[in-house]
Description:
This protein is an alpha/beta fold. The chain has two domains: 1-113 and 300-371, Rossmann fold (3-Layer(aba) Sandwich), CATH 3.40.50.300; 126-297, Glutathione S-transferase Yfyf (Class Pi), Chain A, domain 2 (Up-down Bundle). Helices cover 46% and strands 22% of the residues. The chain has helices spanning 36-48, 123-126, 129-143, 145-171, 176-216, 235-249, 270-273, 276-298, 309-312, 315-327, 340-350, and strands at 2-9, 16-20, 25-29, 68-76, 79-87, 94-97, 100-101, 114-117, 222-227, 260-265, 268-269, 303-307, 333-337, 354-360, 363-366. A six-stranded antiparallel sheet has the order 2-1-4-5-6-7, covered by helices on one side. The chain has a six-stranded mixed sheet with strand order 8-12-13-3-14-15, sandwiched between helices. A three-stranded antiparallel sheet has the order 9-10-11. Strand 14 and strand 15 (363-366) form a beta hairpin. Bound molecules: adenosine-5'-triphosphate (ATP) and magnesium ion (MG). Magnesium ion binds at residues 36-37, 307-308, 336.
Amino acid sequence: xxxxxxxxxxxxxxxxxxxxxxxxxxxxxxxxxxxxxxxxxxxxxxxxxxxxxxxxxxxxxxxxxxxxxxxxxxxxxxxxxxxxxxxxxxxxxxxxxxxxxxxxxxxxxxxxxxxxxxxxxxxxxxxxxxxxxxxxxxxxxxxxxxxxxxxxxxxxxxxxxxxxxxxxxxxxxxxxxxxxxxxxxxxxxxxxxxxxxxxxxxxxxxxxxxxxxxxxxxxxxxxxxxxxxxxxxxxxxxxxxxxxxxxxxxxxxxxxxxxxxxxxxxxxxxxxxxxxxxxxxxxxxxxxxxxxxxxxxxxxxxxxxxxxxxxxxxxxxxxxxxxxxxxxxxxxxxxxxxxxxxxxxxxxxxxxxxxxxxxxxxxxxxxxxxx
Length: 371
Ligand SMILES: Nc1ncnc2c1ncn2[C@@H]1O[C@H](COP(=O)(O)OP(=O)(O)OP(=O)(O)O)[C@@H](O)[C@H]1O
Ligand SMILES: [Mg+2]
């Protein structure tokens, strides 16, 4: 799979920009705030139908403008795929594949696998369980669209159940039969979600451990354990046991929406006991493991978006990361950096075809041609 070119219209600080991509490396160089990350986010958007950053679509519309549009020209298995995303605030967002609108945006996920590695990914370790669940859900959804459909169904019923509990709490009265009707709708998707997560995480842990050791060059044991109450009992039982608690708290306190990943180093919580460098290595290993898994199962390397990573890594770790990427039969990557010299050094190691762009205030100018 390759991204040949993409066009941004009124997306963040871009008015109209077309980017031709290298089949190997495409580099965006520029000072802070010039629009490098925005280009990576545009690519991510075309692959996933949404921004990498958790923010409303309306904020991605260029100031003073009334819509944004992204167009991507991909090749998948030798076949051209044109993806268009269009957002007009307060209207339904449109996503098209080869001119045909998707009935549901979620159907697009998995067609164009993508992995972003960004500086603030350390929030996976430092923040609440939601960031870790969304990492897991992002990976599994790209691997298996049916997983995403189960997740959407589960979340819909969960919301309805919570709304009902809240309504009972506020208006008094409680009808267990109504709550249990939702319980029955939740168990199917919950079981599927739990099973997928469990099956995925076992081999993933080992891969993560290997990659951590390769990146850090250190021998300490790290782990990433999947934690779910559904390991002990099926959801209907958990819901029954939690019924009184749910009633009092007016929300559903058990289920896959409470699952977590437990990151540890030498058996202790990573968040508290990892040094800055160890934390960075762990997160990189996690993202690389995601990349490897997607590559293995989709039988094509995902598009790799590397945002500012060489800035945040020491040379040694940066070099190891690159080696791991090359070794893994790597496909197409997009890299941002503020420092052209440093990026040049990286590019030389790849020995791959590359294109360089200078990014300045929402315009990107090509600095070289393919030899
Ligand atoms: N909706 C929008 N309309 C106009 N400008 C926007 C919009 N959203 C973001 N921007 C601008 O985009 C710029 C940031 O772009 P981006 O994050 O891509 O920069 P960067 O080149 O990656 O910088 P850094 O090196 O600091 O990471 C900021 O100047 C911001 O104000
Ligand atoms: Mg940036």
